[in-house]
Structures are given as C-alpha cells and as structure tokens.
Specification:
- It is a single chain.
- The chain is an alpha/beta fold.
- It has 10 helices and 13 strands.
- A hairpin with a 3-residue loop joins strand 1 (about 50-55) and strand 2.
C-alpha cells in the first residue's frame, strides 16, 4: 500500500468516525434536553422549571405555578411561596431558608412549613414557606427587607443548614448599601436557564451544550483526587489543625455572623421576634448515614462532628440570638425513624415533621413570654 492510498483510507475512516461520533453526540444532546423538558433531574441541573431571573436576588420562584414533584401536584402561590395561601390570616410566620425549607424530596404537604401549619390548626395563621433552593444568607436578607412590608410577618424563622450555608457564601458577589446591608447579589456559579431551571454556570460549557456538561462532569469524577478538597459540604467539620482546613473558612463564619446580626437588628427595629433553627447534617445524627457518601474525600475520623453547632451556639450566645439546635433532638429519636433521605442530605417526611414539632414547641415562649392568655397564645 502506497503512502497516498494509506493517507486516503485513514482520512476516510477518520471522517466516518467523526460523523458517527457527531451523530451519537447529537442524539445524546437531544436526549438530555428532552429529559429536562419532562422535568427530570439531570445533575447538575436542578429539577423543577419553577425559577426566573431577578435583578437583586439572582433567581426567584415564578408565581402561581403548578408542577409535578414527588408523585404529586405542588404549587407556588401568589407570593412565590411553596405553601397554602391565607390572605385573611391575622398571624404570619415567615420561614426563610434554602432547599431544606423549600422541602426538597418531599411532597407539598410534608414540608416543615406545612407541618407547622397543620400543628397550629388554624387559618388565622399563615405559615409562609419562602425557602428557595440554593439561597444563601445574603439572598435571604435581601428578600426579607425587600418583601417585609408586603408580608408583614409576626415572626421570622431562619433555617440554617450547618453543612453548606457558611461555605456557599463563596459563590456570591454582594452589592451592599451604606449601612452594609446586601441589596443585590451576583452568584458566580448558579443561574437560571430555559425553561426556568436552576443550573450551575460551570456546568454549561461551550455553546450551552448539556451533553458537553454531562461528559465534563463524568470525566472529572474519574480523575483521582490528588489533594483533599473540603468543598462546600465538609469544610465546616474540619478543625484548624487539619492540613486541609480551608484558609477562608474563618472569614466565611465572620461574614455569616455579620449578616445574621443585620437580620436580627432589622427585625428588632420592626419589633418582630426572630428564631434561628440550626439544621444538622445526617452523618452528625446517626452513623448509618455515612454509607451514603462513598466518594467523600476524608475519612470519618477526620471530622469534628459537633464543630459547626458549637460555632453557631457561640454566635447565638454572643449576639443574643434565639436559636434552636435540632441536633440533640434528632439524635434522641434517630433509632426509631429515618429523618434524612437516602439520596442526599435533605429531610424525609419524618424529618420535616420532627423539625416542625420542635419549632412549634420553641415558639410558645416567643409568642407568650408572660404566659398571657391571648388569641395568639391560645393555640398552644
């Protein structure tokens, strides 16, 4: 075979291979986009087309939207909340938070807000579930100030998840006013793509191809991890003596405390009680959940399991914050029920119920500090 004929055959075979690969790639791209239109979850694209872009908050819920979620109908009400809407209610409790508050992996009636609504057992109360997947404390503070006069809450609850609420501040570029309050956010990693799905900016590479994104993520997962990386989830469990202790973690705790105190001060000016609920990670509650994380980059004995709770407790004590730590409560009952999903760290139906019952018990001294018998206190 001459060099010319070899080169010709090689070029033909390469062209056929490229055409065939292009066809497979196109089919895979079509398949992923088809799945998204069916509202299936494709990592790292978040699963429900219920979001829209917002200048100040980055993303918000679309209003008056129904969607299929966890084998049933869910809805976002006229205020952009995932709950029932009681416009005539005389008492309003506003719940701020991220996916835990929203109710990831549970149906509409099994969120913390829904169970608290059920516990109060009165349409005189409106438990407002303002939880939005992916929100950080900066967004929650912006939301509170932006919508306070519209909502007029009697109580505000902030649900803080210890595993990533501190570290996810890394994503944010905050614009602040002269008093230091955040007024607008630019999230460096999260955005909304059509048709209203929350996605990672890093997962949408050249030309916005979902197939390239998926291939890139799978390729990254195959690369051996030469250096341990605490990431968003595990950083708060490492003490300062650990060689992988993140250099920015102390500043992140300080920033979180600063905005938490701003939230408290703002509500003090409005004379509105404020409760911070500290949500534990599953592995803190029960050893059985460690098996959920086969790809974690640290061994179990490297973690200081109660470390984030201790930091939160110090913040609460030093700033006079009213805080509810769910960790000891969940540990007490962990041998009886599964409080966390098997696919991720979020609550099951039972986890949301126990959290709501604990919040309900905590609300009594907030609403009735002098044990006065009033319409508000009568539900207790």
């Amino acid at each position: 075979m001459t060099w010319r004929s070899f080169s010709f055959n090689f070029a033909i075979n390469l062209l056929v291979l490229l055409i065939f690969s292009g066809m497979l790639f196109g089919i895979y791209e079509f398949y992923l986009r088809y799945k998204i239109k069916l509202s299936d979850q494709i990592k790292p694209v978040l699963d429900q087309p219920i979001f829209e872009n917002d200048t100040n908050l980055g993303w918000i819920h679309k209003k008056n939207v129904e969607f299929n979620y966890v084998d049933g109908k869910s809805f976002i009400n006229p205020l952009g909340h995932r709950d029932q809407y009681f416009p005539e209610a005389t008492g309003r409790i506003l719940m701020l938070g991220d996916s835990f508050t929203f109710g990831m992996n549970v149906a509409q009636n099994y969120t913390m807000a829904a169970f608290l609504q059920e516990k109060l057992n009165s349409e005189d109360w409106d438990i407002m579930n303002a939880g939005v997947i992916g929100y950080t404390i900066g967004q929650e503070l912006i939301y509170l100030r932006k919508h306070f006069d519209e909502i007029k809450p009697d109580i505000v609850i902030l649900n803080a998840f210890v595993a990533n609420d501190i570290t996810e501040q890394r994503r944010n570029r905050l614009e602040r006013d002269k008093k230091g309050y955040p007024v607008a956010i630019n999230d460096q990693e999260v955005t909304v793509i059509e048709p209203g799905i929350l996605a990672s900016r890093k997962a949408i590479p050249l030309w916005g191809s979902l197939a390239l994104a998926d291939i890139f993520i799978r390729w990254q997962a195959l690369i051996p991890q030469k250096n341990k990386n605490a990431g968003y989830t595990w950083a708060v469990f490492l003490d300062e003596k650990h060689p992988s202790y993140p250099s920015d973690i102390d500043v992140l705790w300080q920033n979180y405390e600063s905005d938490l105190l701003k939230m408290k001060n703002y509500l003090n000016e409005k004379n509105v009680p404020f409760l911070v609920v500290i949500i534990p990670m599953d592995v803190q509650v029960d050893h059985q959940y460690w098996s959920k994380y086969p790809n974690k980059v640290f061994e179990e004995n490297e973690f200081k399991n109660d470390l984030p709770q201790k930091k939160f407790q110090n913040i609460c004590k030093q700033n006079g914050l009213n805080c509810l730590d769910l960790l000891p409560i969940f540990r007490e009952y962990s041998d009886k029920l599964l409080f966390f999903a098997q696919i991720d760290p979020h609550f099951t139906q039972d986890g949301n119920r126990l959290a709501a019952e604990s919040i309900f018990a905590k609300l009594k001294p907030i609403l009735c500090p002098d044990s006065k018998q009033s319409n508000i206190c009568s539900v207790f």
